[in-house]
Write a structure and sequence with these properties.
Elements (H helix, E strand, L loop, with lengths): L12 E5 L3 E10 L2 E11 L5 E2 L2 E2 L2 H12 L11 E6 L5 E8 L3 H15 L7 E8 L8 E10 H14 L2 E7 H9 L5 E10 L4 E8 L1 E8 L3 H12 L3 H11 L7 H29 L11 E5 L8 H9 L3 E3 L19 H4 L3 H7 L2
Parallel strand pairs: 1-6, 6-10, 11-14, 14-15
Antiparallel strand pairs: 1-2, 2-3, 4-5, 7-9, 8-9, 11-12, 12-13
Helix pairs in contact: 1-3, 4-10, 5-6, 5-7, 7-8
């Protein structure tokens, strides 16, 4: 998003900013191969950022500066960054237009933005791209439009200025996730990415050569942890430890399972509703008309023991933990010595941003 506005030459690092953490990943290219150059993270205290809105840019800038100076694998050699925008505050729409010239397309898209985004045109920044079809027989253009409120974008740019960061692009998390997880940017069959994070879960449907749908809801890892703490009358720290150690292993600890299962049931129902909606309303010739055929799990919540088995059984659809390295490392490699596979799942958005 806004690539043309900030277009420059240096390779950026990926900066994934969420309500509770900052994650950074920098890739470098040597002899045609990609390598992990730097990575790191920092926690964000409550009260600095909420629901994607910056509440204290001075204090948050301090956290960002500290995180940049405390990375693994050496010092960061660039101030340029590709930065995430909160999914719940951005708008992604796929619209269909008749085949026309680029100038006509640009004019038509302004009307589509006004019709599909709940803001006046003057109050948003927007960008768009044509999604290349898998088959040449398609008689229309599929256009992915991305938009965000101007005041939100301006607040992020000011934050980055205070932190000494030079953004070359800003884009919704879903675009970075898809760039990282969809091999070669092409999915012959529609796939659903479920990014289960600390405070929210993002749903992304990808088909053909482009993203088709995204949404964000407040199902989260934190809710699981709080459920365990309340049901077992233990501290949040102890509940978090149990969640990581036990997960959905019912035989090992019934109480932990019973605390987690309401969240997982809700997640299952949400996945089913999005898959059903896509199959009934959105699948058309760009993806062969099929419904969702696979679920990719990402985010910190994807590390929950037993989550892929539960969803595969409950939805009768294959669910697997997605590899954030599929477009970075040559197979069969799926981790680096410095960043294990399980830990790297938490860096998926940052790695996708670094791939821009």
């Amino acid at each position: 998003m806004f690539n043309n506005l900030f277009k420059i030459t240096p390779e950026p690092f990926g900066l994934d900013l969420s309500d509770r953490s900052i994650k950074i990943a920098k890739l470098s290219r040597k002899k045609g191969k990609l390598f992990l150059e730097n990575f790191g993270e920092a926690n964000i205290k409550e009260g600095l950022m909420e629901n994607g809105v910056i509440l204290s840019d001075a204090k948050l800038a301090d956290v960002m500066r500290a995180s940049l100076s405390n990375l693994k694998m050496g010092a960061l050699k660039t101030a340029y960054a590709s930065c995430s925008l909160p999914e719940q505050k951005t708008y992604l729409r796929v619209v269909q237009l008749p085949k026309m010239s680029r100038k006509e397309t640009e004019e038509a898209i302004q009307w589509e933005v006004e019709a599909n985004i709940p803001f006046a045109l003057k109050d948003v920044y927007f960008d768009w791209q044509v999604i290349s079809p898998l088959r040449k027989s398609i008689d229309h253009l599929d256009i992915l439009i991305s938009a965000a409120p101007r005041d939100l974008i301006d607040s992020y740019i000011e934050l980055f200025r205070k932190a000494g960061i030079k953004p070359i692009s800003l884009e919704p998390e879903s675009l970075a996730l898809a760039r990282c997880l969809i091999k070669g940017g092409v999915s012959e069959k529609p796939a659903l990415i479920v990014d289960l994070g600390q405070t929210r879960t993002n749903f992304i449907i990808y088909a053909g050569r482009g993203l088709r749908f995204s949404s964000s809801i407040d199902i989260s890892e934190d809710i699981m942890t709080m459920n365990i703490a309340r049901s077992m009358s233990i501290s949040v720290e102890d509940a978090e430890k149990l969640k990581k150690e036990i997960g959905m292993n019912r035989d090992e600890n019934e109480k932990v399972f019973e605390a987690i299962i309401p969240v997982m049931t809700d997640l299952k129902e949400q996945i089913k509703s999005y898959a059903d909606f896509y199959a009934e309303h959105a699948a058309h010739v760009h993806s062969g008309g099929e419904g969702i055929e696979k679920i990719f799990l990402s985010g910190g919540g994807a590390r929950l023991k037993g989550i892929e088995k539960y969803l595969t059984t409950a939805l009768r659809m294959p669910a697997e933990i997605a590899s954030p390295w599929i477009n970075i490392l040559e197979p069969p490699l799926r981790e680096t010595p410095e960043l294990s596979y399980l830990e790297s799942i938490r860096y998926t958005t940052a790695l996708g941003l670094a791939l821009i």
